[in-house]
Amino acid sequence: MNVVGYGLSAIGPGIGVGIVFAAFINGVARQPEARGQLQSIAFIGFALSEALAILGLVLAFALQ
Amino acid sequence: MISSLWTLAPAPPVPPGPMPAEGFKAPSSQDFDIPPIFEGVPALEWIDKPVIQLIFSAVLIYVFFALATRRTALVPGRLQFAAERFEGMVRESIARDNIGPDFRKYVPFLVTLFAFLLVNNLFGVIPMIQFPTFSHPGMAYALAILTWFIYNIVGIRKQGFGGYVRLMTWPPGVPVAVRFILTPIEFLSNFILRPITLSFRLFGNMFAGHLLLLVFIFGAEYMLTVADSILLKVMSPFAAIMAIVFTVFEAFIQLIQAYIFTILTASYIGASLADEH
């Protein structure tokens, strides 16, 4: 059950990370010289949306 | 029930006699409980493998930067060049982009933090060590608390206590009715959830990655040595190959996580220093 819960909690962050990097790639394709600035923003966005999946993973192991 | 991941309770006693050969026991959080080195000496029981790794990494980084900057020259040698590139990367792409005009004060902290995280994470894939230090949550909590104190103190110094709390919880240009919801959320996210997510992200990634490698390696070993089916024996090398592939992938994840921890620290400091507008 814990692993099923983790799988469910990973759906949202998966979509979110995809959107973040899709926007990053779009931005770089339109304006390649902005890559440096966009990269740090993209990684912050990636980290924030990934947090939910990590919380799910930690809880899957912590609550038994 | 809270497992031993949080309380570090001793592992349940193993029944005496030879281990029964049937059934594959998947790796779990128990595999992260490393016994202390000086077993039975109460004063030294806190020393275990991750603690040794922390001290070793600090010594390693100190020696590297001391050697690199011992004889600084206008035309840098190989070691000095490596150190300067490292410092320059953190300064340009992490500190300057996220903190703003007065980023120089925070560059030493960020360089140290990044080097410390990078070395400790890469311990997870370096042969003979192969244990990421931050897969024990306590280590990650300590770093997150350090970051929490730094960005709060920096903000209070710059804005004053009232101004800082106002900046963090009172975003401008919001209708009064919305503030009843928004201010508690902002407070929760800026003062409580930031250190929690920061430490959980690092710990969770290191923990999950190491567990994944354990699954592949233990699985390959089990299929080759214990399992009876010839089909499983044939499949075993593929699991071993996957373990190697995921080791490379893990090294990448560890680099990314060190980068993300540093960049989030920089952006929190930057948010504390931001002028109101």
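qc> The first helix of chain B runs from residue 4 to 7.
qc> done
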